[in-house]
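Hey,
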Amino acid sequence: MVVWLFAGGGEAEIEGLVPFFRDNFPHCRFERLTPARIKKGPKPGKKTYGPGLTGKGFADQIKTILAVALLSGSCDLILILDCRDADKQRRIFSAAIDSVNNASGISRFIGFAAPELEAWIIADWENTFAGHVDFRSFHEGLRYRLSHNYNVPFDNPESFSEYDEKKDSCKEKLSQAIIDAVFEESLRLNKRLERYSKQNHTPQLLRCADPGKVADKCPFFKEVYNCLKKISDYNALRGGRSFLALKLTP
């Protein structure tokens, strides 16, 4: 079963999401369609990607890329992941899909990585930060710092910060809180300074996370998890036959 993945965001989403989904839902074939704009990087052989979009800009991008993709291919499910404003964005993205020729009949699921993908790795701390070679020696102090200095709610990391309509983003970024806390905690311990890389560490840690444990603490992720698990299990039993009778909406 082919799943076309549309995700906003940047390097962490590019490098992390598809491997994470492939590891945990092996009976689905995930193909990432966004972020999709590729350009040559500053160094020979290095590729970088255009900026990730959200909201209306993301919906317009989905329409354009989906229309082109359907000219030469097909999928069984369109999976969209955004970061905020669930009810409003579900309407916008669903309308974007329906506006594309031959797309309205394709099953779709619109989910959310809120407020950022890092919420998923915070939710399963023992399998991510606590076990990673770069952080395990000071992960307890790092967790304390994130909780007390940056108000990261470990029982519900998706609730971190608040959405700022003027900025069209969260007031505080969870990824920046992690970057700052890692630096400060390693500095306090007078050790070799560790720096958290959203581009490198987030994908690495994500592949260590147990999706069932993440789902226990992240309600938005739980919706995505339940959808993909249902489809993957059904596909395994039915040998790839149609799953259109399944209810995919949360």
